[in-house]
Amino acid sequence: MYKSLTSIANTQMNLFRYIKNYQGLLYRDGPSAKKYIYYDEKEWRYIPEISDARVKASLTKEEFTLYRGKSKMKPFVDRISLSFKANDIKYLLVRSTSDIPKLLKHLRTVEGLVQNASEFEILSTKIFTIENLTGDF
């Protein structure tokens, strides 16, 4: 069966949504690393469906420049949030032990994250410090 040209183009556009550069320039207030290895970040990313009306399929050069700007809130995706529950969380990393109370205080304010005190206690056991991990490994 033959696919239409539009179907082939849509399939390729869908594939490009999941691709991330392995290596390249890192921009933080100007180029700061010539051979930054993006793969080392090993981050998970949420990628909305192409049919999601909350996102644009492509951006103009001006829109992309605005999107990559210095603001923490990104236009074109500021209406999209990824919901999750406490049992979806595997680890919580903080810099040092002194950051744990701040994190716990914040977690208590996240609406819908935990259903009861028992879930909160389990979530609190998932907190690790970079200090300890660095020292242990």
Brief overview, please?
The protein has helices at 5-16, 61-67, 100-109, 117-124, 130-136, and strands spanning 23-27, 31-37, 92-94, 127-129. The chain is α+β, with helices and mostly antiparallel strands and 137 residues long.
Structural summary, described in words:
The protein is of the alpha+beta class. The chain has helices spanning 5-16, 61-67, 100-109, 117-124, 130-136, and strands at residues 23-27, 31-37, 92-94, 127-129. A hairpin with a 3-residue loop joins β1 (23-27) and β2 (31-37). It is extended, with a radius of gyration of 20 Å. The mean pLDDT is 83.
Outline the secondary-structure elements.
Blueprint: H1 5-16, E1 23-27, E2 31-37, H2 61-67, E3 92-94, H3 100-109, H4 117-124, E4 127-129, H5 130-136
Parallel strand pairs: 3-4
Antiparallel strand pairs: 1-2
